[in-house]
Design a protein that fits this description.
- Its EC number is 1.4.4.2.
- Its cofactor is pyridoxal 5'-phosphate.
- InterPro entries: GcvP (IPR003437), GDC-P_C (IPR049316), GDC-P_N (IPR049315), GDC_P (IPR020581), PyrdxlP-dep_Trfase (IPR015424), PyrdxlP-dep_Trfase_major (IPR015421), PyrdxlP-dep_Trfase_small (IPR015422).
- It is a single chain.
- The protein is α/β, with parallel strands linked by helices and about 950 residues long.
- Among the domains are: about 250 residues, Type I PLP-dependent aspartate aminotransferase-like (Major domain) (Aspartate Aminotransferase, domain 2, 3-Layer(aba) Sandwich), CATH 3.40.640.10; about 240 residues, Aspartate Aminotransferase, domain 2 (3-Layer(aba) Sandwich); about 100 residues, Alpha-Beta Complex (Aspartate Aminotransferase, domain 1), CATH 3.90.1150.
- It contains 31 helices and 25 strands.
- Strands 2-8-7-6-5-3-4 form a 7-stranded mixed sheet, with helices on both faces. Strands 16-22-21-20-19-17-18 form a 7-stranded mixed sheet, with helices on both faces.
- It starts with a helix and ends with a helix.
- The chain binds pyridoxal-5'-phosphate (PLP).
- The site of pyridoxal-5'-phosphate has 16 residues, from helix 21.
Length: about 950
């Protein structure tokens, strides 16, 4: 084992031995043998290269990085160079207080990131001219896909055609096709500059503004006509352009989507970047993704929290509006802070400058007699030229441009460009240098209304103020840099510094996703190696890294299954069996693939009910497309019958989808691709160390057995793959893939197996320690659990103590709560992971027992629930410092309950318990604009 592996695993050898002793096992292998069913157990070492030390792995990756060529890209098409302000790079992107945070489901310990996400919504709302925006989507293309289905639903599916401008970004067009096909929506390509006559059955119109060739179109009359015809208008747009141009809201759009990348988020070969999604008020209830709202806490102070629809998938399942779970929180935060740091005036100046550069270039081209588009923002498209020859000439001057077809080339400028860049490209064209900037776009295309007048966009223009603001915000939150985050199903393990380091290397961060292939050899080699490593870890034959979240991997996997059945002529196979315990994204993804969800029951022990499964198979003899199971189950148990489940479905002609979110219990001990799975998605942001970023980014690779490989999403280095495009960029969130590459490269086969074994050991240790007060809801062989356990807190409700009370009280003890009420309402699911030390596990168990004692006091009548440490939790500093504090317990009990812990550095929640109902009744999702104060 490498020293890295020893450090990644939080348990020392002594800890391991002591914990095994308590559980009554001799060795990790003995424990593993008892926990993991013999029918699936596989202890042959993973076929990975011998592991490297941190320094060696960084050196090896450096060599790969060097094979990427850094050429300035003027490619555009939705991705632009940008200057990430260093104060944001250092204090956010490279700061574990920000990147290791979890999705803000526990709002009291997430006020810092929720505040910024709230401002993201404000910024997007203001720039797009819409009423409400969500807190980011996965990318622009998938956001357009979500808009398509929202518009379809808005007219209750009564109309079936959508007009799509052929001037949309090509990747957006491809994604729209992916989403439309399974649902039977007809996409009709249009040229929006021509009058449109056929509105029969049309529910929506999608345009890109400015369009992919750079033209700023006149869209008002198109919007008017669409509305007269009862159709919705969807605009894909660009935030920088919108600081200068008329807003889509003013033009008449109903839904606006786009990418916030160019607000300070590195190109990174295509991602991760935060997509945005904004709508008119009317459609707010059907928006996909997360929405941050403002509510109040028990003390009446304003507080942020995720609005109700956030948990929509778990409530509405296959009727959910979307399968989006992990989105791009960290990148949305960066884009917002970029806007705060610059403010609206500087942003508009920047946009104007970029526009003037483009106009200067356009005028230079015209002088040389080249045909160009006239009314542009930042992209100029040259037509009637030899695209290949021209692209080569410009490359010789040091720039990538965008050949669109044999006779057309686009050149896009951005905030990192200057007049010298314009002149260098003009020289390549044989044109003369421009000495002065051309005028910006005509005034009547510019917006006149003010925007982003709120204080937050004006108060932090000095670096000192920004630095302190960032510190204040992150101090409000609990991330992994403070305490363990024992989230069941989400695997909050160490995100090691050496894994994070390569993310900001320019060779990885400054590459355009559509850069010429000979400039991205290092990237594509690294990606191919990671695919191979992940295949070795899972037993699958092929892996696609394109999906940028688990939900997208699910969708890609189901589409592959669908395409496979269709290729066999089995078009009638349309039923997706899903156990009742499944994660909400499963049924939501099945619905997007237009599969019919049939729920399979679970038995009393929480396992898939084999009788019910067989009954369902008999009921639909030739229609089973797939079963989606999670393994180990979402109940945290290695189900003994999993091979029988797989066999039964295979016999019925169906495919087996194994949700790989729980892979942290499997790597090195069993392989889903070997014990019955045909396809799985993995969550690299769970098992393979990509940090959660406060709700994203993530990567959700989809792995398949050989027969499904041709149906994986197509990309640039696997020509034989024919599946639908799943993300806008060919390799999704490419710039964070080095994190997982580093992890596997440093752990090696032994390290990975030991990590899994320690994750299982820690979960069983916690279960064992807590069992006396908290019943473990589901267990497998010998009363053991897998890598997580569900504790039953429902009996405590008889004396008023709710699962919320426990979760909020844990905050006073300095912890983030475990997963609450999933998969079983009223319970907590604890996953400690291998990265926590025994001391931290013990501290957590002490907190849980402390809480139990507090419950007992209520049960025994020594305390009143309605005014107890539990019901009043979490305790803010403001509250306990009141001079006249009239409480039946002491200040120390309130905020320093575990005397063994050194509270000289205590976590203080910034707000008291938040009122969710109030927040949903009074939905406030962005700052009021100044005009609303007048
Ligand atoms: C996390 C999770 C998902 C969804 O993954 P995202 O990356 O959040 O989209 C799906 N299934 C299970 C069981 C999960 O825990």
């Amino acid at each position: 084992m490498t020293q890295f592996a020893q450090r990644h695993i939080g348990l020392s050898e002594t800890d391991i031995q002591a914990m095994l002793d308590e559980l009554g096992y001799d060795s990790l292998d003995a424990l593993t043998k008892t926990v993991v069913p013999a029918s699936i157990a596989d202890d042959t070492p993973l076929s990975l290269k011998a592991p490297l030390s941190e320094e060696q792995a960084l050196a090896e990756l450096r060599e790969l990085a060097k094979q990427n060529k850094l050429v300035k890209s003027l490619i555009g098409q939705g991705y632009y160079n940008t200057h990430t302000p260093k104060v944001i790079q250092r204090n956010v992107l490279e700061n574990p207080a920000w990147y290791t945070a979890y999705t803000p489901y526990q709002p009291e310990i997430s006020q810092g990131r929720l505040e910024v996400l709230f401002y993201f919504q404000t910024m997007v709302t203001e720039l797009t001219g819409m009423d409400i925006a969500n807190a980011s989507l996965l990318d622009e293309a998938t956001a357009a896909g979500e808009a398509l289905t929202l518009a379809h639903r808005a007219l209750r599916g009564k109309r079936n055609r959508c007009l799509v401008s052929k001037h949309c970004h090509p990747q957006t067009l491809a994604l729209l096709r992916t989403r439309a096909t399974p649902l039977g929506i007809e996409l009709v390509l249009i040229d929006e500059s021509q009058p449109l006559s056929d509105w029969e059955d049309v529910f929506g119109v999608i345009v890109q503004y400015p369009d992919t060739y750079g033209t700023v179109q006149q869209l008002t009359s198109l919007c008017d006509t669409a509305h007269e015809q009862g159709a919705l208008v969807i605009m894909a747009s660009d935030l920088l352009a919108l600081t200068l141009l008329k807003s889509p809201g003013e033009l008449g759009a109903d839904i606006v989507v786009g990418n916030s990348q160019r607000f300070g988020v590195p190109l990174g070969f295509g991602g991760p970047h935060a997509g945005f999604f904004a709508v008119r008020d009317k459609y707010k209830r059907s928006m996909p993704g997360r929405l941050v709202g403002q509510s109040i806490d028990v003390h009446g102070n304003p507080a942020y929290r995720l609005a109700l629809q956030t948990r929509e998938q778990h409530i509405r399942r296959e009727k959910a509006t979307s399968n989006i779970c992990t989105a791009q929180a960290l990148l949305a935060i960066m884009a917002t802070l970029y806007a705060c740091y610059h403010g609206p005036t500087a942003l508009r100046q920047r946009a104007t400058y970029v526009n003037q550069l483009a106009n200067t270039f356009r005028d230079g081209c015209k002088k040389s007699g080249i045909t160009v588009n006239e009314q542009v923002f930042d992209t100029v498209t040259l037509s009637g030229i030899d695209a290949e020859a021209l692209t080569k000439k410009i490359l010789a001057q040091g720039f990538n441009v965008n050949p669109r077809d044999a006779k057309t080339v686009s050149v896009a400028f951005d905030e990192t460009c200057g007049l010298d860049d314009v002149n260098a490209v003009l020289t390549a064209l044989g044109s003369t240098d421009a000495s002065a900037l051309s005028a910006p776009i005509e005034v009547n295309a510019q917006r006149s209304e003010n925007y982003m007048t709120q204080a937050v966009f004006h108060d932090y223009h000095s670096e000192t103020e920004m630095m302190r603001y960032l510190r204040r915000l992150s101090d409000k939150d609990i991330a992994l840099d403070r305490a363990m985050i024992p989230l069941g199903s989400c695997t909050m393990k160490l995100n090691a510094a050496s894994e994070m380091t390569p993310v900001t290397w320019p060779e990885f961060s400054e590459i355009h996703p559509f850069a010429p292939q000979d400039q991205t050899i290092g990237f594509r080699t690294m990606i191919a190696q990671l695919e191979e490593m992940l295949c070795a870890c899972t037993g699958y034959d092929a892996m696609s890294l394109q999906p940028n979240a688990g939900s997208q991997g699910e969708y890609a996997g189901l589409l592959a299954i669908k395409a496979y059945h269709e290729s066999n002529g089995d078009v009638q196979r349309n039923i997706c069996l899903i156990p009742s315990s499944a994660h909400g994204t499963n049924p939501a993804s099945a619905q997007m693939a237009n599969m019919h969800v049939v729920v399979v029951k679970c038995d009393d022990r929480g396992n898939v009910d084999l009788m019910d499964l067989k009954a369902k198979i008999e009921q639909y003899p030739d229609e089973i497309a797939a079963i989606m199971i999670t393994y180990p189950s979402t109940h945290g148990v290695f189900e003994e019958e999993v091979t029988q489940v797989c066999e039964a479905v295979h016999e019925a002609g169906g495919q087996v989808y194994i949700d790989g979110a729980n892979l942290n219990a499997l790597v090195g001990v069993a392989q889903p691709g070997k014990f019955g799975g045909d396809v799985s998605h993995l969550n690299l942001h769970k098992t393979f160390c990509i940090p959660h970023g406060g709700g994203g980014p993530g990567v959700g690779p989809v792995g398949v057995r050989a027969h499904l490989a041709p149906f994986l999403p197509r990309d640039q280095h696997n020509g034989e793959r024919t599946g639908a495009l799943i993300s806008g960029a060919p390799f999704g969130s490419a710039s964070i893939l080095p994190i997982s590459w580093m992890y596997i490269r440093m752990m090696g086969a032994d390290g990975l197996r030991k990590a899994t074994q320690c994750a299982i050991l820690s979960a069983n240790y916690v279960a064992h320690k807590l069992r006396s007060n908290y019943p473990i809801l589901y267990t497998g062989n010998q009363n053991l659990v897998a890598h997580e356990c569900i504790i039953d807190t429902r009996p405590m409700k008889d004396h008023g103590v709710s699962v919320d009370d426990i979760a909020k009280r844990l905050i006073d003890y300095g912890f983030h709560a475990p997963t609450m009420s999933f998969p079983v309402p009223g319970t907590l699911m604890i996953e400690p992971t291998e990265s926590e030390s025994r001391a931290e596990l013990d501290r957590f168990c002490r907190a849980m027992h402390g809480i139990y004692a507090e419950y007992l006091a209520i049960k025994n009548g020594d305390a009143e629930h309605s005014n107890s440490v539990l019901s009043n939790a979490p305790h803010t500093m403001n509250f306990v410092l009141q001079d006249e504090l009239d409480l039946p317990y002491s200040r120390r009990q309130a905020c320093h309950p575990d005397v063994e812990v050194d509270y000289s550095v205590k976590y203080w929640p910034p707000v008291g318990r938040i009122d969710n109902v109030y927040g949903d009744k009074n939905l406030v999702c962005s700052c009021p604009s100044m005009s609303e104060y007048e």
